[in-house]
Design brief:
single chain, 424 residues, D-amino Acid Aminotransferase, Chain A, domain 1, ATP-grasp, ligase, ATP-binding, Rudment_hybrid_motif
Length: 424
């Protein structure tokens, strides 16, 4: 098979690494890719939203399967475009990708089908939202309706903060058109857990759990980011939690989308909050999480191509999805100043330390080749250093040891990724 992966981040590098393990794959392409993916795949300088160019490339190279890694092209309808061109593609179509593309849609879906989530109201008028906040209980959560690179959520502790947040999202348009509509949501407390799943329109297979760290600074301080690190599995995702979610959340979501005439094929990412009253859905994503993919996929035993084929063909119920009985931790090496302002173009050294070291991975996120062929920083999140271990504590120790193998100017990371493990 020839496989094309669309995207350029650590998630796509993790997908490419899994695809490369498949005996069925002889050639991998990636568009646009990055310096790490280029070691596994032939990269093409085509943007993820350039649908016509991607289709022409897939046709020219006689690609057998295209895997869409990113949210923007999915919500924009790339799967529909590929299918119309007669090309086989993995991911939800535009009608189904709205599950991530509109928080207002997903909240309304959960309410309609009794899927447990936080109480909320949707607003498309800033003045009405502010009026609602005058009598609302604090703290409260404000969410831009559309895609905002994982950063469109504001947690407001006071009424003044909340009113300012409405202005930021709806009037100042900090998150662009994503803020035309806004969800105002009850603030929930508890452990956050991420659960990824494969879906074929009717059936769902749950992957192992993970836990992300969104804030930029140690102690969950600072601004929200795309993710500063993650670990898998979550010790807080117990058998009891799993049983509840299987009964009330996972299959219920698949059935709800089908009932709405939007059958979902691809990846559903369940962002869960484990509250005192039981698990609640925080959010849905319509693709692999980043950096969750970097700890979940290395632990998956199955051939990823076989699983994706089953999702497309509606035969997922025949797949026995299995994961290794171990753990993985990913620590993101970022550019100092992320997620606000940071420098690019710094040379990265130390990649050779990962060669032939089983259970250690260095997933590239924001990297590229310089004019003279050196690998340099090219983003806020630069690398995802991932390591496995027999236990979470061992995996955490291994991952932090491996962060010392890589050097670049203005390298920054959190030092408490997986610290919650010690409290489990």
């Amino acid at each position: 098979m020839k496989v094309l992966i669309v995207g350029s981040g650590g998630r796509e590098h993790a997908i490419a690494t899994s695809v490369a393990k498949s005996d069925r794959v002889e050639k991998i392409y990636c568009a646009p890719g990055n310096a790490g993916i280029a070691q596994l795949a032939e990269c093409a300088p085509i943007g993820a939203m350039e649908f016509d160019k991607l289709i022409a490339f897939a046709q020219e190279k006689e690609v057998d399967l295209t895997i869409i890694g990113m949210d923007d092209p999915l919500v924009g309808g790339i799967v529909d475009a590929f299918e119309e061109a007669g090309l086989r593609v993995f991911g939800p179509n535009k009608a189904a990708a709205i599950l991530e593309g509109s928080k207002a849609f997903s909240k309304d879906l959960m309410k309609k089908y009794n899927i447990p989530t936080a109480a909320y109201e949707n607003f498309d008028d800033a003045e009405k939202a502010i009026a609602y906040l005058e009598t609302a209980k604090m703290p409260i959560v404000l969410k831009a309706d559309g895609l905002a690179l994982g950063k469109g959520v504001l947690i407001c502790n006071t009424k003044e903060e909340a009113i300012e947040g409405v202005k930021t999202i709806m009037q100042d348009k900090k998150f662009g058109e994503a803020g035309n509509t806004m969800v105002v949501e009850e603030f929930m407390t508890g452990r956050e857990v991420s659960v990824l799943s494969f879906v074929d329109g009717d059936h769902i297979k749950i992957m192992t759990s993970a836990q992300d760290h969104k804030r930029a600074l140690d102690g969950d301080q600072g601004l929200n980011t795309g993710g500063m690190g993650t670990f898998s599995p979550s010790p807080f995702y117990t058998d009891e939690v799993d049983a509840f979610c299987k009964k009330y959340i996972y299959q219920a979501t698949v059935d709800a989308m089908k009932a709405e005439g939007r059958p979902f094929k691809g990846i559903i990412f369940f962002g869960l909050m484990l509250t005192a009253d039981g698990p609640r859905v925080l959010e849905y994503n319509a693709r692999f999480g980043d950096p969750e993919a970097q700890v979940v996929l290395p632990r998956m035993k199955n051939d990823i191509i076989e699983v994706m084929d089953a999702c497309i063909d509606g035969t997922l119920d025949q797949i026995d999805l299995q994961f290794e009985d171990n753990a993985a931790v990913c620590v993101v090496l970022a550019s100092d100043g992320y997620p606000v302002k940071y420098e690019k173009g710094h040379i990265i050294t130390g990649f050779e330390n990962f060669e032939n070291k089983k259970g250690y991975y260095c997933f590239h996120a924001g990297t590229k080749f310089s004019d003279n062929g050196a690998i340099v920083t090219n983003g806020g999140r630069v690398l995802g250093v991932t390591a496995k271990g027999a236990s979470l504590k061992e995996a955490r120790k291994n991952a932090y040891t491996a962060t010392e193998w890589i050097e670049f100017a203005n390298k920054y990371m959190r030092h408490d990724i997986g610290k919650a493990i010690d409290e489990a």
